[in-house]
Amino acid sequence: MKNEKLKILPWSLEIKDMDAEDYPFYESILAQGNGYMGVRGFDPAGIKRNSFERSVFLAGFFEYIKPGITDMVNMPDLFAVRFGVSCHEISANATLDLRTGLLTRSSIWQLASGEEFSLVSRRIISMQNKHATALEVEIKPLDGNLTIVLETGLDGDVTNLPVSDDQMTENTECLRLLNPALCEANQSGGTLIMESTYSKRRVYQAYRVWANLPLCATGLAIRDYTAVRLEGVIPAGESLILSKTIATYSYRDDVDDPLSATIQLADQLAELGFAGILEESSQAWDKLWTTCDIELDGDPKLQGAIRYNIFQLLQNNAADDPYVSIGARGLMHGRYKGNYFWDTEIFMLPFFLYTRPEAAKNLLLYRYHMLPSARKVASSLGLKGARYPWMSSDTGTEQCETWDTGCCEVHITADVAYAVQEYVRISGDQDFLIHHGAEMLVETARYWVSRLTYDDQRDCYNMLFVKGPDEYCGVTTNNTYTNYLVRENLLGAIRAIDFVRQQPQEWSVLQAKLQVTDQELETFAEVAQKIAILYDPEREILLQDELFERLQPLDISTHKRGAAALYRTIPYDRLQRYKVIKQADLVLLMVLYPERFTSELKQNIWSYYEPLTLHDSSLSFGTHAHLAAELGYQDVAWDYFQKSVFLDLYNIMDNTDREGIHLAALGASWQALIQGMAGLRQGEDGKPQVNPKLPPAIRGLRFAVMMGGYSFKVIITQTETKIEAHNH
Length: 728
Ligand code: BGC
Known about the structure:
The chain is of the alpha+beta class. It is 34% helix and 25% strand. The protein has 19 helices and 28 strands. 52% of the residues are buried.
């Protein structure tokens, strides 16, 4: 589903002569953000087709749409450029600059009279000041003087179209989640406060408009629409340059008076102007690229795609906010109602852990802050400790409405525990372990003890009523991926307590909270030792679960893997009884613990499970590329890697237009390249080591990596490998 018009360059995406029917796709891939805010790449001056489409989201801004269930709220359109004369776009090009985050759209427009003008819009979501956004519009007459009537401001007439968890159900019901609380305008700008319907949560926005030509300006404020209206003539040969700077705060920001803060910032941004905001933001991007970039010697398209993956991970991460995580579609689409999944801990976190450990820590702190809810989730199920919900928003309660997935896909809790241990191992942040991680590990371990069922016939602990990462496995027993991570969760809790005990002061604080007994720790150890891990000694292979072997075979040779998911043609329920795998399950386990399993076992897992895997989840390709690279299956690794790294750019899942960007795939691509192909590991000395198995198409690789609080630069060429201190 490659889009022929899209050109991927080492530092940019270029689209020439955009097709109107592909706008939803372009809007997905051209999305911009700074972790605080995400904006789809819609045309500022484009027609508003539906009130839910010109999506702008703020991290962590959710509202209830029914009892207990939230949706990520679509914010006012902050670009909103409208013509007061009848005209339409006749051609358009766009460029997204990955180095600076600038999105430029150049178009030609025609008035009803036949006169044409060019319109260039440039927009920036500042990486330097998360509350700042700026737009510059340049209009040039192409046929003599141009009489223009133009408005720009904030359009609060927006709705949500909540997307059902059931991927086959299309929702058509729009919900208005924001109402105006204040709407003002004058000839140079305006203010809009919108308030959410149920929780009365507010977003505060103020903008200033400046034009280089002396046009007649009026302020318009109608219900939830505030704009400056400009009327006048643009003389032939001259251009109208209009710049708009916008300040945004919300109820989530820690300021005493958000309205004053917004207005004050709007004034400061107006002083700074578009160029100043761009300059500051570009400098912030420069810093990010110093630690996050991967340079490769090879195909420029691949270079651009890798940067694009990194760019979107950075744009969707609120690096300084310990109360939000990253949604499966980030801040760029309302799919999954903006919810956070295991996608963050298992697929995205490694990138942040090795490049921006502070950001990784904040992602884990989100889970720490959700512990009270996780305890409630566990107790509501009659269980102990803390159980993380399969889908989580700002409340930390279960947001999954599909009962089998929500109730059975319990591995999320063990995934969080895995991420905590990985974070501590790689960053060396013992403080985090003492003050947050240990509590998370113990509370989740308590959950597992109460969730597992003792089998006195076999003297083991079984995980009944479970679904592993492979969501096509039915509701099963003893999913090995889950049980293995649970075991590590239990052992991790014991190790964490042993460690904190050595710091008497900290231990007394933690112990006052947790009341851990020696007997409890013994139980953790016993359960860890006796949890069922299904291994077939004859075939020397781990079994996915207890039902898998009994499922009905299905010939998938004719199904194009990596196209529309099979549940689109075979009912979801029927798929649960076929011996096919939706996405990496045991293959994933192999890459999570690269040193634990022998290469024979890894090969056996690959040979048995890979041919049965449909990759009906975008999480699957990168993991397969990762293990294939480790096993030295270079061609296969390369094939999978391309599917992962170009997943959205080439619309591999055939849904990037309808669903936005697949954040986990971006992270999985990073892992495949850095941990799989470059073979990055932590050595015994706590420092990075690599064992490159680069495919022929990548002749060299340079990247920075953080470990134990130090930054290193890894340089891999065809003849040598160097790891040196990275001073930046
Ligand atoms: C996958 C899950 C994933 C979710 C959100 C589903 O299709 O099977 O593993 O967490 O999408 O990305």
